[in-house]
TrEMBL record:
Keywords for this protein: Membrane, Transmembrane, Transmembrane helix
InterPro entries listed in its UniProt record: Bact_Transport_Assoc, DUF418
Domain DUF418 stretches: 24-180
The protein, known as: DUF418 domain-containing protein
Signal peptide as annotated in the record: none
Lineage, top ranks: Bacteria, Bacillati, Actinomycetota, Actinomycetes, Streptosporangiales
Amino acid sequence: MLVAVTWVFQGPMALAMFLFGLAAGKSRLLEEPERWARLLPRVQWIGFGVGLPGAVLFALTAAGDGPWQLVGLAVTDLTSPLLGAAYVATLLRLVRRFPAAGRALAPAWRVAASNYIGQSVLACLVFTGYGLALAGTLSPLAVMGVALVIYTVLLWLSALWLRAHRYGPVEYLLRRLTTWS
């Protein structure tokens, strides 16, 4: 049953997050964070204040079975967008304060779709039977380390790729499919 509920919630949630990302792009949120500087602390307070308790509830109920697992899933589906917004607000404030960090991270942002696919492929190769089959064998801290290594490798590859190309490979394909150019 959890799988069915997950599909029912995840599809619309993914579309909503895509549309929020599109709105953020149109408002030039990442390009002109100073326009939003006064709003960012409020987003952090609300996002962390509502999102973190939702994430904790989900973490406490996810391993169980039954109605509390569904309650935890429903709560995290409602609160995780606020937590995500708080993460983005925090990142924007850090980049505003430390511009060199923004310049270092910019290549990954410019080819975000390619990095998303790249992270999925690399994580599958590390954690599933197609690759190293490490799922369930690593501690949470080790999993975070693997994620950091994957992100660092893709950040380096993104910078390398952008020296020779204007768009990432997935961005190029999406551009071709949507504009036929």
